């Protein structure tokens, strides 16, 4: 994962301007080239008319854009615990863990309990008023998050410490005391304060509910996922930003340096993915929650991925092409079964598999909680998930 900019040329009479686009977050070479196509077309249409620099700058722009753009910032993969022999998406490296975390929430709590959090915490509750002391603001944020999670009211102590090795930490105790420490570098950053408090107080919520995982990293993924799904984790995505600073090299030349800043263990797209699943389930409008441009882009990418899970076979609204391919695959399995050429008791396809161990059934994930659903084929049927109590119209 990295950020790139693209070049484009604009010619006006005899003057040519060689410009740079805004930064784009890309996950692969093909993704980088595809996003540069509009700027290449712009250069071809409007850049090559002024002689001699028009054609020269246009060619330079095409070389840069079809090379995947100019890299301005590479994002290192901080997930040191991810096994190196597994192929994972750099955009969604924790996707399976996120799905397992949502399923764990529905299994540990009831569907009715999860629905108590169908409304997100409002931005007004976690915004600093002009001139407000950051310590008082942090206490107010923490109180709002405690109330949102229906935790018992108690004494809340939030302080800042320079020597803290992490962004924040909380003391987990059974008493109604909330002792949260934040690193002092976040003292003047409203979005960061709210994001850290959302994560740390969710630790308290899960601890008191008895829901935690033995693996530290997976437990942090569970905490981030739970905070988003319960309506406060959008604060973590809202803290994501790309900042640029101008630096002078001493020779009169100014360079722009970009820096990515984010909090939490999920990638921005994973935050957007969980927000998307939450928005679809609870029919909540979430666009107004995110204020930062780059965070909104990540939200839209994650939301599209979440919505796509509702448009996979055997869902009735999967679309004509996907439904046609599903029927073709099913017919192939039936023919192989009758001829005795099918090896094994199941055959997997993209998003589903056919199980022929007994009566032929299609197996796929519930788009809400990822529980495996098994349905008989040759029927239009309504699928019911026993974990999240959701229902879906299917054409198997």
Fold and architecture overview:
The protein is α+β, with helices and mostly antiparallel strands and 396 residues long. It has three domains: 2-74, no CATH class; 95-309, no CATH class; 312-395, no CATH class. 39% of the residues lie in helices and 22% in strands. It has helices at 29-46, 53-66, 95-108, 111-115, 134-148, 190-209, 216-229, 234-238, 268-282, 293-308, 320-339, and strands spanning 2-5, 7-12, 15-20, 24-26, 70-74, 155-161, 168-171, 177-183, 241-248, 254-261, 346-349, 352-355, 361-365, 372-376, 380-384, 391-395. The strands form six sheets. It has a four-stranded antiparallel beta sheet with strand order 11-12-13-14, covered by helices on one side. The protein is flat, with a radius of gyration of 25 Å.
Short description:
By secondary structure, the chain is an alpha+beta fold. The chain is built from eleven helices and 16 strands.
What general outline do the C-alpha atoms trace?
flat
What proportion of the residues form beta strands (DSSP E)?
15-25%
Distance from first to last alpha carbon:
38 Å
- Tally of structural domains: 3
> Helical region count?
11
Structural class: alpha+beta
Question: What is the C-alpha radius of gyration, as a whole number of Å?
Answer: 25 Å
Strand order of the largest sheet: 11-12-13-14
Mean pLDDT: 86
User: How many beta-strand elements?
Assistant: 16
Low-confidence segments: 76-89
- Helix coverage percent of residues? 25-40%
Secondary-structure element order, N to C: EEEEHHEHHHEEEHHHEEHHHEEEEEE
Largest sheet: 4 strands, antiparallel
Keywords: Membrane, Transmembrane, Transmembrane helix
Transmembrane segments: 6-24, 36-56
């Amino acid at each position: 994962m990295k950020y790139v900019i693209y070049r484009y040329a604009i010619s006006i009479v005899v003057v040519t301007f060689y410009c740079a686009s805004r930064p784009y977050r890309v996950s692969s070479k093909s993704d980088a080239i595809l996003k540069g196509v509009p700027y290449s077309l712009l250069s071809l249409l409007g850049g090559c008319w002024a002689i001699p620099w028009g054609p020269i700058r246009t060619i330079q722009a095409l070389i840069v854009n079809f090379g995947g753009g100019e890299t301005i910032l590479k994002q290192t993969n901080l997930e040191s615990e991810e096994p190196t022999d597994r192929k994972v998406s750099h955009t969604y490296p924790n996707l399976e863990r996120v799905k397992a975390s949502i399923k764990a929430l529905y299994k540990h709590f009831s569907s009715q309990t999860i629905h108590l959090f169908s409304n997100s915490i409002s931005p007004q509750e976690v915004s600093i008023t002009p001139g407000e002391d950051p310590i008082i603001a942090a206490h107010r944020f923490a109180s709002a998050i405690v109330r949102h999670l229906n935790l018992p009211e108690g004494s809340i102590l939030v302080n800042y410490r320079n020597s803290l090795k992490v962004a924040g930490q909380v003391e987990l105790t059974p008493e109604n005391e909330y002792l949260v420490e934040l690193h002092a570098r976040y003292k003047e950053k409203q979005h960061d304060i709210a994001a850290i408090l959302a994560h740390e107080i969710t630790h308290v919520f899960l601890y008191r509910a008895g829901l935690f995982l033995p693996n530290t990293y997976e437990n942090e993924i569970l905490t981030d996922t739970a905070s988003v799904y319960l309506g406060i984790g959008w604060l973590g995505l809202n803290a994501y930003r790309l900042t640029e600073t101008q630096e002078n090299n001493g020779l009169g030349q100014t360079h722009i340096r970009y820096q990515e800043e984010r909090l939490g263990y999920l990638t921005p797209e994973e935050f957007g993915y969980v927000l998307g699943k939450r928005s679809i389930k609870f029919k909540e409008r979430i666009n107004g929650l995110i204020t930062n441009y780059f965070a909104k882009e990540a939200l839209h990418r994650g939301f599209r991925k979440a919505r796509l899970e509702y448009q996979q076979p055997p869902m009735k609204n999967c679309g004509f092409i996907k439904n046609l391919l599903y029927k073709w695959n099913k017919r192939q399995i039936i023919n192989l079964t009758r001829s005795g050429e099918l090896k094994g008791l199941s055959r997997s396809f993209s998003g589903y598999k056919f199980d022929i161990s007994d009566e032929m059934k299609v197996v796929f994930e519930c788009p809400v909680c990822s529980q495996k659903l098994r349905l008989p084929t040759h029927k239009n049927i309504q699928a019911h998930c026993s974990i999240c109590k959701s229902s879906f119209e299917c054409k198997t």
